[in-house]
Design goal:
By secondary structure, the chain is an alpha+beta fold. The protein has 8 helices and 7 strands, in the order αααααβαββαββαββ. Among the domains are: 103 residues; 149 residues, Heat Shock Protein 90 (2-Layer Sandwich), CATH 3.30.565. Strands 2-4-5-7-6 form a 5-stranded mixed sheet. Strands 1-3 form a two-stranded antiparallel sheet. It is found in: Cell membrane.
Length: 370
């Protein structure tokens, strides 16, 4: 038992010295290729075994012949180990370089193509993560392009929509100033109407800027949808009568929600105005509210004839008005963008889909206390 402990002690001492030297070498070449590190690891393993064997051999006073045999065996093992480590290192380095090239192209053109030859499990995991990141970035770039397009459209439409009433106001004010207005009272009423239009546009821009800046302050309170819809229908009734459109709100459940009453009234008002203006005379605009698995679904159905399928994803984009504007003639494509911003601020979502003869806007909100 004593002899066995001595053999273990001598073997451990020889291997430990080799291991410490190997650790120092690995620290020195830590910024070098993986091939060099693998070669050092293989060399340390073999040399540790050789050092331990030699220490034990010297302690046991082996004959020179026996010592040379042991040394030769260990040397052959060292050759094979180093060759294997070099081959493995070159293979791993090659796969790493392929992954680096793929990641470089990912940074250059935004696309990522995984290397054709699979690498180690860790490199494959990194490759999958790069592919997922590439997909997310592609979607983000697409959203950014769509947002930039909508911003350019918004600037163009705002410039046009502001120029038209301003030109009218200038002409009417000059006519009043020169005393050539045939009906000054009518001119004054028209000026007031144009000022109201401009005020509404500026208000929409301010609301949208708060939404985009994340500074929209909500004051949520527990409200019944029945009361909320009733107030919105009462506010939209004069416009509906003027357009010859019938408002229906019979399918509204008295479901409690915790929302900002003022902001949600604006959401309903925008949806109802859009629906009324796009529904032909003698048509119907219906409002409904019901519970669902996701919370409460508040819907506005119109008779606009439907929206082209390719335009549906852009309906709520800032400044989008499509071929046939979804907003009042005085608007600049902000109404539905404001709807989406306010609804998302309430942790809800706004969607639209076509139905026979028209389309259906749906606002999904969480239940009170959810």
């Amino acid at each position: 038992m004593h002899a066995t402990l001595l053999i273990a002690l001598y073997a451990f001492a020889g291997a430990a010295v080799t291991g410490l030297v190997g650790a120092a070498v690995l620290r020195l070449i830590r910024r070098r290729s993986l091939t060099a590190s693998l070669a050092v690891v293989a060399a340390v393993a073999v040399l540790a075994m050789l050092a331990g064997t030699l220490a034990v051999a010297w302690a046991m006073f082996l004959s020179p012949h026996d010592l040379s045999v042991v040394t030769t065996v260990v040397a052959m093992a060292a050759v094979v180990s180093l060759a294997t480590a070099l081959l493995l290192g070159r293979w791993v380095v090659a796969r790493s370089r392929e992954l680096t090239a793929a990641a470089r192209s990912f940074g250059d053109d935004g696309g990522y193509a995984a290397p054709a030859v699979p690498g180690t499990a860790e490199l494959d995991a990194l490759s999958r993560e790069l592919a997922a990141t590439s997909a997310r970035l592609a979607a983000s770039r697409e959203r950014e392009r769509a947002l930039e397009t909508s911003r350019r459209e918004l600037v163009a439409w705002i410039s046009h929509d502001l120029r038209t009433p301003l030109a009218g106001l200038r002409a009417m004010s000059e006519a009043l100033e020169d005393g050539v207005a045939a009906d000054p009272d009518r001119y004054l009423r028209q000026i007031r109407a144009e000022v109201e239009r401009l005020n509404d546009m500026v208000g929409d821009l301010f609301e949208l800027s708060r939404i985009h800046a994340g500074t929209l302050a909500l004051a949520p309170a527990r409200i019944s949808l029945y009361d909320l819809v009733g107030d919105a229908l009462a506010g939209a009734d004069p416009l509906a009568r003027e357009q010859g459109v019938r408002l229906v709100g019979d399918a509204v459940a008295a479901v409690p929600v915790e929302v900002d009453g003022k902001e949600m009234s604006r959401v309903l008002g925008n949806l109802l105005v859009n629906a009324i203006r796009r529904t032909p005379a003698d048509g119907t605009v219906a409002v409904a509210a019901e519970r669902s698995a996701d919370g409460v679904v508040l819907s506005v159905t119109d008779g606009c004839g439907g929206i082209p399928e390719e335009d549906l994803p852009r309906v709520f984009d800032t400044g989008w008005r499509g071929t046939h504007a979804r907003t009042p003639p005085a608007g600049a494509g902000l109404g539905l963008a404001i709807v989406r911003g306010i609804v998302e601020a309430h942790r809800g979502r706004a969607t639209v889909r076509n139905i026979p003869g028209g389309c259906r806007f749906e606002v999904t909100l969480p239940l009170a206390g959810a």
